[in-house]
Each structure stands twice: as structure tokens, then as C-alpha cells.
Specification:
The chain is 36% helix and 27% strand. By secondary structure, the protein is an alpha/beta fold.
């Protein structure tokens, strides 16, 4: 008996899926179909799936081609399944050609052609509202915005605008966009969502204009250095019934959310100490302090809350540039410390100490795919998340849900969180010593 295996998400089941399973079945006598699990899809950042796992399995079952249906739950499972089920041939669509050649060490790998003109992605584009994202930037780096947007059902990147038109043209060519906008007003007119990725000095202006043009806005964080300006922007967003999101990714990531649940669920007892450090080499002063410090302060507020009783800051300057900054916070039940460095380097890590254990996230904690928990009873555990991006896709998925439900404020990183961070940064600068 020749045993065949194939895998897929099988979302929004269509003729192409049917034909794929039919051809896979024709390759042998017994067909095993692996359907990706919900947690696996979310963990690897595939957030465009619309049908539930139960629905997707039932649709595969109804074809009558599958002799066995299994669920794919983790990266690397294919090799285990091939060995476990004594597979002769692994079948997959030719859009994956070359990606699974390593499985030839375990069985025959065969790539077969897809049905032309139909796909789950195309169906999503036809059946669901697509929010066009316009980008305003003064940088040639997109911070994975274009790639991440392509993984979310309900959004697509449209035009790009820059005050320096040469940057817009280079950006368009670099990321394969179709058009540049000749003016910000043109971009607003042709977009549903405006993503603002500029120097801090220009964010308030563009955010205000985009909101007043009736657009949802995602802006690099913080979008203002002034509490009064920030309040004004939030007031405009509410008046216009539009979404305003800070582009701060950690609170949306699966790793951070799971860690926050573990901490707030009491797995390490009461939190008595929070330490978070971040540094990047040779950045200018606004990026160093305001942007990096905001990255570290935000998770502190999400985990410990806003009710600290005292704050102290110590900033080390070289001329006008901040080379190193430390912020201390007293909470009713513990303390927190934030370190931000430029040429004075610090190790990028986060550590949360409780009365019953400690949680740690190592280098580049803001986009980590795991965290460690050591408990006072001697036990330890590593929590792994399949995560291969900077997390922007999770923020975008939240925005799509908010638009569809006509909700203008997210609980992942709220107006209160945003305004509190800005107030902390203002106080730190005012108290510099």
C-alpha cells in the first residue's frame, strides 16, 4: 500500500482545495491530510484564517478523499508524521517548490500545480472589505510593514508619500508598491488607514491631518512629545470616530500576552521587581530616549499598572545627546527600573521577579519567541511561541477587527496607556540630572 500525506490550512474551502486533494489521493492508495491547527496558525503569525479548525476539517472530510485527517500543531511536525505513518510520498502545491526538498531524506517529495485563478487569498479579497493602507515616510526602511500587511486578511498597502519625493519613489521600488502620492492630501483621499513612519517632529502634523481627513491612523510611537498635543489628537480621533493606534508592537505579540497572563495570573506570586533594558547603537537623541524608552515603559505599565507612587530619572548627556538613561518607579508592592542606552550599551532583556518565581525574556525582548519561568519550588519552564516577525501583523489584525466592529479604542495599548507613557517621558526629561 502506497501512503501519501499532504498539508494545508484549507480555509474558505474552494475548488482548488478539492482538486489538490483529488490529485494527492491519485498518487497512492491511502491519503493522510494534515490540517493546520488554530494555535499553530496564530503562533506562526498567519492571521488571515477565517474558518474554524472544526469547519476546515469537516470540509476536507466531505470530499471523501482523506483516509485519515490529522492536525498540524507545531513546526517540524511533518518529519515526525512521515516517520510515524510510514509515508511514501509527501505532496504539496508547486507554489512551495523547493521549500520541502529536505523531506526527500525521508520520503519522495512531489510538487503539483495549483488550480489557476482561485485561492483563499483571492476569495478573501472579493468577499471581505479591504482597508487600503497609505504610508507616509521619510525612511527607506519599512520595518516589515509591507510584508506583514500581506499576511492579514482585510488590508493591503496602496500608495506611499514623502515630503521628499525621491524617498517615496525609492520606497515604492524597493517594496514593489504600485504608486506614489504627489501630496499627503492625495494619499488621504485614496487610503482608509494611514501609517505614519517619520521623524518625531513630523508625526503630530501628519497624524492630525490624517485624522481630520477621516482616516484611521497608525503612527510610530510616540506620535507627540507634548502631552497637550497628544490629548488633542486623541480628542480629534474620538470626534471623527476614527481609530488611533501607537505602533508599539510588544503588547500585541503572542509572547508578551502569554507572559502577561502568566504574571497576572499569579504563577510567580506578587510582582516585587520589574527590570527592562533596551539599547541601540548610534541613534540620534529623539530616537534614543523617546522611542526606546517608550518601548520599555509600555510593558511596565501593562504588567504593573499606572499606580506608581514615585518616579526618579537619571540621564547622562554628551553635549545634547543622551548617552544613557535610567528611570526608577516605586509601586505599592514593589519597584521597577528602566535602562536605555546608546553608546553606553545595555543588554536587551526583561526580568520580572515575584514572590514565587521569576520570568525572563532575553535579547530583543520586544520580538522574542519565548520566555523562561523559574519558580522558588525549583521548577522551571520555557514557553515557546512560533514567531518569525516583528509583531506588526498582530497590531494590524487588531485594527481590522476594530474596523469591522466599529470599535475605536483597543485594550492592548489604550489611550490611557499612550498618554501615560508620554507623561512619564516628559517628567523624566524635566527631572534630568
Amino acid at each position: 500500500m502506497k501512503r501519501i500525506i499532504t498539508y494545508g490550512t484549507f480555509d474558505l474551502f474552494h475548488e482548488g482545495h478539492y482538486n489538490m486533494l483529488k490529485r494527492a489521493k491519485a498518487e497512492g492508495d491511502y491519503l493522510i491530510v494534515g490540517v493546520t491547527g488554530d494555535r499553530y496558525d496564530v503562533g506562526r503569525g498567519k492571521l488571515s484564517v477565517k474558518d474554524s479548525l472544526a469547519t476546515r476539517i469537516e470540509n476536507v472530510k466531505k470530499t471523501g478523499f482523506a483516509d485519515m485527517i490529522i492536525t498540524e500543531e507545531y513546526l517540524g511536525q511533518k518529519i515526525s508524521d512521515i516517520i510515524k505513518y510510514d509515508i511514501d510520498t509527501f505532496v504539496i502545491g508547486d507554489d512551495w517548490r523547493g521549500k520541502f526538498d529536505h523531506l526527500n531524506n525521508y520520503c519522495t517529495v512531489k510538487y503539483i500545480s495549483r488550480t489557476e485563478g482561485i485561492s483563499s487569498t483571492k476569495i478573501r479579497e472579493e468577499e471581505f472589505k479591504i482597508n487600503r493602507i497609505g504610508i507616509i515616510t521619510d525612511k527607506l526602511s519599512d520595518n516589515q510593514i509591507v510584508k506583514e500587511s500581506g499576511l492579514i486578511a482585510g488590508v493591503s498597502v496602496g500608495k506611499v508619500y514623502s515630503d521628499d519625493q525621491s524617498i517615496a519613489v525609492k520606497f515604492k521600488e524597493k517594496y514593489g508598491l504600485q504608486e506614489t502620492a504627489d501630496s499627503a492630501e492625495e494619499l488621504y483621499r485614496d487610503s482608509d488607514v494611514v501609517f505614519i513612519r517619520t521623524d518625531i517632529k513630523d508625526r503630530y502634523r501628519f497624524t492630525k491631518d490624517a485624522l481630520q481627513a477621516g482616516k484611521h491612523v497608525i503612527c510610530d510611537f510616540p506620535f507627540s512629545l507634548d502631552s497637550n498635543q497628544q490629548k488633542e489628537l486623541w480628542d480629534i480621533a474620538k470626534k471623527q470616530n476614527r481609530i488611533l493606534l501607537d505602533n508599539i508592537k510588544a503588547p500585541y505579540s503572542q509572547t508578551f500576552i502569554q507572559m502577561m497572563w502568566a504574571v497576572q495570573g499569579g504563577l510567580i506570586g506578587d510582582v516585587i521587581d520589574f527590570n527592562c533594558s533596551v539599547s541601540k547603537k548610534d541613534q540620534d537623541i529623539p530616537y534614543l530616549f523617546y522611542e526606546l524608552a517608550a518601548m520599555a515603559v509600555a510593558p511596565m505599565l501593562k504588567i504593573l499598572g499606572h499606580n506608581y507612587t514615585n518616579m526618579d530619572s537619571r540621564l547622562i548627556y554628551e553635549g545634547d545627546a543622551i548617552e544613557f538613561a535610567t528611570m526608577y518607579f516605586d509601586y505599592p508592592t514593589g519597584k521597577a527600573k528602566i535602562n536605555v542606552g546608546n553608546r553606553v550599551r545595555v543588554e536587551n532583556q526583561m526580568e520580572i521577579i515575584g514572590t514565587k518565581g521569576t520570568v525572563r525574556i532575553g535579547d530583543n525582548w520586544w520580538k522574542a519567541d519565548y520566555f523562561e519561568m523559574d519558580k522558588t519550588d525549583g521548577s522551571s519552564q520555557v514557553f515557546n511561541i512560533n514567531f518569525d516577525s516583528n509583531g506588526f501583523r498582530f497590531l494590524l489584525a487588531n485594527l481590522v477587527d476594530m474596523v469591522s466592529q466599529n470599535i475605536i479604542e483597543t485594550q492592548f495599548f489604550s489611550e490611557q496607556d499612550s498618554r501615560k507613557v508620554t507623561a512619564i517621558l516628559e517628567e523624566a526629561i524635566a527631572n534630568k540630572r
